[in-house]
Amino acid sequence: MHQPIDLDHIRHLYRTYTDDLDRAREQQRALLAPPTSMKAQLDDIEAEITYLLLREARPQTVVEIGTFHGWSTTWILRALRDNKTGHLYSYDIVDHVVREVPGELSEGRWTFTQGDARENLEKIPDTADFLFIDAAHSAGFARWYIRDLFPRMRPGIPVCVHDVFHGRRPLPFTEGAVVLRWLAERENAWFTASPARAPEIHDRLAHIKRSLALGHPLRDSRDNPMLFFTLR
Q1: Could you tell me the sign of the dihedral formed by the alpha carbons of 155, 160, 162, 166, in that order?
Q2: Could you read off the pLDDT of 111-155 as tens digits, one per residue?
Q3: Who contacts 133 (Cβ-Cβ below 8 Å, separation ≥6)?
Q4: DSSP class of 34
Q5: Which of 20, 47, 104, 177 is the most buried (most CB within 10 A)?
Q6: Dihedral sign, Cα of residue 101, residue 104, residue 105, residue 110
């Protein structure tokens, strides 16, 4: 069973993997510059937390639903590369990611399936050790993965769901509202570094990053709306 995801644990991970994260950040920074100029969806802190959780968990099988241009994909693959183990299975209805993920990251550790994940459930490994979701943000999509995908996953795995906390709370009838209600019903703890929802946590992590010389931003953005939890 993985350790609960909370501020103390994330601070510990930042300190444990400082040097590796610094290198990963600079390698990711290069993807944002010409000629690649990758379009990035994740903000810095949520991308770094994802990397750090992957480093700690050392998963053999990672499932990513929603890739777009590959910013999250490259962060995940970089963590697997640094772990020297693990394979990523990604799913999206568009295939932009195939043309943008560097071969040195993907070779031997990545499988991409184009198509709606809801229509490819049988292709999603039920042995996943880590689950990352950043796709359709509708209530219906959330109900699908709660009903059909989560039961296929093993209890205790880390789960990341993007675009939940752009405000103090998600709008009604959205993915975030459905997931948070499901977590509350199960008394399943969760974590976010969103300044809209948890400004003190965001500021503390920003302070930790500065103290570790990780404060120079990759992206000019501080939204960090991702939700993290351990599946129970």
Answers
A1: positive
A2: 999 999 999 999 999 999 999 999 999 999 999 999 999 999 999
A3: 65, 66, 145, 159, 160, 161, 162
A4: T
A5: 47
A6: positive
Residue of 222, 139, 121, 223 whose CA lies nearest to 180: 139
Q: Long-range contacts made by residues 171-175, C-beta under 8 angstroms, separation at least 24?
A: 173/139, 174/137, 174/138, 174/139, 174/142, 175/136, 175/137, 175/138, 175/139, 175/141, 175/142
Distance of CA 103 to the CA centre of its chain: 21
CA dihedral (90, 46, 49, 158) positive or negative: negative
CA atoms within 13 A on the CB side of 58: 5
**What pTM does this model have?**
0.97
Using a 10 angstrom Cβ sphere, with 0-12 exposed, 13-18 middle and 19 or more buried, the burial of residue 25 is buried
Helix, strand, coil % in the chain, rounded to nearest 5 = 45, 15, 40
| Cα distance between residue 45 and residue 33, in whole Å | 19
CB 18 within 8 A of CB 214: yes
Contacts of 173 (CB under 8 A, 6+ apart): 139
| pLDDT, position 196 | 97
Dihedral (Cα; 47, 51, 57, 60), 10-degree rounding: 110
Share of the chain above pLDDT 70, in %: 99
The string of pLDDT tens digits covering residues 60-113 is 999 999 999 999 999 999 999 999 999 999 999 999 999 999 999 999 999 999
Determine if the peptide bond prior to 170 is cis (ω within 30°): no
